[in-house]
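Researcher: Next entry in the queue.
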Amino acid sequence: MYTYTIKIRNEIIMKIVEVKSKNGINFMILDGNNEPIVDAVRYLKYLDSVNKSLNTKKTYAYALKKFFVYLESKKICYKEVSFDNFVDFIRWMKTPFEYENVLSYHRKGKSISPKTINLTITVVSNFYDYLYRSKKLDVNFYDFIHTESKYSKKYKSFMHHVNEDYGMLKNILKVKEPKKKLEVLTNVEVKKLLGAANNIRDKFLIQLLYETGLRIGEVLSLRIDDIKFDFRKGHQIVLKNRFNSNGTYLKTGERKIFISQSLIDLYDDYVYEIIDELSICSDYLFVKIKGRNVGEAMHYSDIYSLFKRLKHKTSINVHPHLFRHTHATVFYNETKDIKQVQERLGHSNIQTTINLYVHPTEEDIREDWNKVKHQFQVFNKGE
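Model: Structure for this entry, 383 residues:
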């Protein structure tokens, strides 16, 4: 069991405690008296019961912890918040050190990004929506910070189905996020990372991430028999929903993904050099190969340590999800089939895939301009 704390001055007032649940690991928020904040704990149990991922539950726990620290600093009961409190909470997240009785909960010099602030507000508003729907509150504070989008109309348009945001509620407290170009790895960088891997397991892991675009939680949930050999129709990885002892599971349901013979060759080398050589009995595909826990399923912490080493050795700012973005970008640029990208990534809504990956490159823009520029040549010099 692990405990995470937040302090106001020298007094510990908040704790997040890891607890075991039917789905693996969940989290509990404790107040300064080491008593559970009951409604927050119930909400986290609700998230666990609807099979939210470990990362999602942890993110929600930390976001709620921020909110309850703010409430404590202002001496406000969470059942008596106002719209102005939500506004002030945003200001507090931007500059918590300005409050005399609050120590900053993030590292000195590191500000909270607009994206994190927006995520925190979303978590808090969903928490209040849960309280209202479970009859813990008479007023739905969720409505305080949401309004109908200006694009919403009473009737659906003909093209309604292609726009996910049409007719949706808008968070009026959303902080403007700077637009960032989606980062991807080059072929040279992928080869450099593969070369920096210390063993065949890590090389196999990197190549699998690159070739499949799987989320790291999905990769860690794989079993050895999830690799399906078929030399006639094509090899596949089969993703399955099930309990995993390392706290991982599928985020968006079961699916099958085609893989190459070269990845199968790496898999064979990994099984021969690691699984068989170390006499590992685990059915998990990726296991620890050093230390006291050899043969146990790898955890998120093992992955973070691996990528920290890779970043140090290559000077490439790499993380597991960067391979997912790279895979999707390469796949779409080669096929121009966004539906297949959606299926491979496991996105439940194609609009998510479109928003992320359907963007013209500079070369696309230049080629298209060369195709149409003659249409604008009305003026001729000398006439």
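Model: Strands lie at 3-8, 11-21, 24-30, 146-148, 169-171, 227-228, 236-239, 255-258.
Researcher: Noted, moving on.
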